[in-house]
Amino acid sequence: MTGEPVKPFVNALSMPMTTPLGTPVVNVDAVLVRRASQGDERAFEMLYRRHVARIHTLMRRMADLDAADELTQDVFVRAWSRLGSFRGDSAFGTWLHRLAVNVALTRQRAERTERGWIDDGDGDVAERPVRPVHPGIRMDLEAAMAKLPEGARQVFVLHDVEGWTHEEIAERLGLVAGTSKSQLSRARAALRRMLDGH
After folding, report:
1. Looking at residue 73, what is its pLDDT?
2. Which of 12, 22, 75, 148 has the fewest CB atoms nearer than 10 Å to its CB?
3. CATH number, domain containing residue 161
């Protein structure tokens, strides 16, 4: 021990780094991750508060609404336990987002029934029956996405919402790119039908 006083947490966040132009910049996530990886629960709570809304939205899109809260909690439990594996090669938010996708896909794979979640021989997603919608009420996109079969919803969210390529989706889900493209096409057609009220 050098006898120097420990700097308060707030001071650690307010210590600026500088850009090449000399503009002060603070990478708050980097500071919080460093503190949290040393066991600072308060720092991890701040990371949670900064990212929970985005992760919860992603979980609502990838899984049933009822499972979103539990999946979100699971993501942050895993993030806390794996924080030491975060090397800082990308932004913490990007790392957390990938972890969340993995958590959702792993959970859904475990819960999959004998009726596979992608079955090209069982009819077109767009042909599945859709509950009639009152003519004066248009279904919003989130509700329509929740009605898609699991596989079509995953491909739609990963491609159209999260910006993954078909190759990335195929690699992560164990598909061929053509199946990903087919599922996306079917998901889009089904969403158009639901949103148009047909």
Report:
1. 93
2. 22
3. 1.10.10.10
Q: Which residue has the tokens 């992608």?
A: 118
pTM over the 0.85 mark: no
CA distances from 16 to 9, 10, 12, 30, 93 (A): 14, 12, 9, 12, 20
pLDDT average per 10 residues of sequence, the chain (198 residues): 43 46 67 91 94 92 83 93 86 90 82 50 42 46 81 86 85 84 88 75
Same domain assignment for residues 76 and 31: yes
- Whether residue 119 lies inside any domain: the answer is no
Do residue 30 and residue 54 come from a single domain?
A: yes
- Per-residue CA distances from 82 to 18, 37, 96 (Å): 29, 9, 10
Q: Give counts: helices (H), strands (E), the chain.
A: 9, 2
17-18 and 24-25 as β-strands: parallel, antiparallel, unpaired? antiparallel
pLDDT of residue 40: 92
Rounded CA separation 43/35 (Å): 6
Tally of structural domains, the chain? 2
Q: Mark which of 84, 111, 138 sits at the end of a domain.
A: 111
CA–CA gap between residue 93 and residue 51 (Å, rounded)? 7
